Amino acid sequence: MSGCTETGKPRIAILMAVYEPRMDWLREQLLSLNVQKYLDPACVLF
User: Fold this and answer.
1) In which element (H, E) is residue 16 found?
2) Among 4, 6, 18, 30, fewest CB within 10 Å belongs to which?
3) Is residue 29 part of a domain?
């Protein structure tokens, strides 16, 4: 597996530590990820 999407661009993965987060910051981070223009990002919450 090459790690690329169907468009040939590499897949972007965002890792977020969310143990007892400030909810206002977490909400802002998730909203920001939602409006990104990059196709097919992956978000991993741990």
Assistant:
1) strand 13-16
2) 6
3) yes
- Tell me: the pLDDT tens digits for 23-38? 999 999 889 888 888 7
Domain count, the chain: 1
The structure tokens listed for 19 are 């143990």
> 40 lies in a domain?
yes
Q: Does the global pTM surpass 0.85? A: no
C-alpha 26/C-alpha 13 separation (Å) is 17
Burial of 43 (0-12, 13-18, 19+ CB in 10 A): middle
